User: Fold these one by one.
Assistant:
Number 1:
Amino acid sequence: MTRACFTLQVRPDRLGEYAARHAAVWPDMLAALAATGWRNYSLHLRADGLLVGYVETDDLAAAQAAMDATEVNARWQAEMAEFFVGLDGAAPDQGFVRLEEVFHLQTQLAALDDPAAVPPTTDQRGTDA
């Protein structure tokens, strides 16, 4: 399973409307997300427009491709595009900046029980200090 976190920038003058649209997402959009493997998906919005998203999926690229194939996603992305800055023509679901996970509690707790069963973190590989 992949845990993916990403950011986008919502236009500060559109924050209220953006939040309102997400308080009542279209039922067919919700169904499409679930059917294409998006699990535990949430969005968090800061007062300056920084949007942080989190999703769990078996394969993020495959989940994105599956959503791209749906008509409802094309309609949703077209409507949502006007809320964002810095996309340079990309759809919001393709223009986000993915963040690197540097800590996960359950992974480190599991490593305490069985260090051989858990892949090393970045600092254990020696690539970051």
Note: The helical segments are 15-23, 27-35, 60-68, 71-80, 105-113, 122-125.
Number 2:
Amino acid sequence: MHIVNSILLRAEGFGRFAVPETVTAIAGGAFENTGFTELIVPDSVTELDEKAFYYMEFLSKITLPSGIRKLPAGAFQLCLALEEYTVPDSVTAIGDGAFSNCRNLKDIYIPESVTFIGKDVFEKDIEDSVQLTIHGKAGSAAEEAAKREGIPFIAE
């Protein structure tokens, strides 16, 4: 693990991983090509760089803290094992391509707090991708994104 000035730059390993409480930010690519299946991010983390969880091929579960306000561009891009995700209520914006090519993502729950959703957030260029359903409040940014990207939407 490589931490500089409370920023997690790189972690390696397999299975379940809890980010240390001393970390306040996660750099882009910090977990790229790791074998982690579950990631627990503590409340001390308030900032995520673009592609923070990029290409975590085996990641199936992640817990983010309530201090996260934005899921940046490419945040979960190519997280191939992720099947379901609930965006934390603290998040107000989801960047371009944040969940692009998450080929097994079937359900995403987006709270009303999210008022901005970027371009191609849920783009799937990978063959054999499952059909995604977006869940959220009627009239929300989640419903707008679903319509824009041609993805089924369920009002909750």
Note: The chain has one domain: 1-156.
Number 3:
Amino acid sequence: MEKIKRILDMISFIAKALAALCLGIMLAVSLVEIVRRYVFGLSFSWADELVRDGIVFVAMLGGAAAYREAGGLVAFDLIVAHVKGTVNLVLSLVINTVCLLFSGYMFLNAMQTLETPSIVKQVSVGLSISMFWPYLPIAIGLGMIFIFSLEKYYNIFLGYRRGEYKNKAKTEGSEI
């Protein structure tokens, strides 16, 4: 499992690096576009589309990487961090199961959408590329979330075996 963890670490690192690179490109294109539009009265026809597609890319890959990291998705951590013992175990399993089922279902739908002729043959106006490419990060991000959900089951199981989910007797001065 250590080899798989290293592979998933690398995938997560690459996703974060690509998301950061995309953010930098989006920033540069936006700044150039602002100067061209307001100073020279000119505009690139592809700039808005590139930034819009970049937002989807960053959201899907960055979201998948954040799902894997502890504290990456605050809403889940806020709930789980306030309960202990068996309730924490059950809640972790329920949340992870919902994420696994949702990401798996959406991944399958995204893959079916990518295969449709209306997506493959349609060409974007500004960038003149197949719409397959702007839709691809959606499928990749959902696939990553699905794989990371499977890894979370393994981590929950390891935590259970280490006794992290045991109900502790309440002693004076301690919190449960």
Note: The longest helix spans residues 2-40.
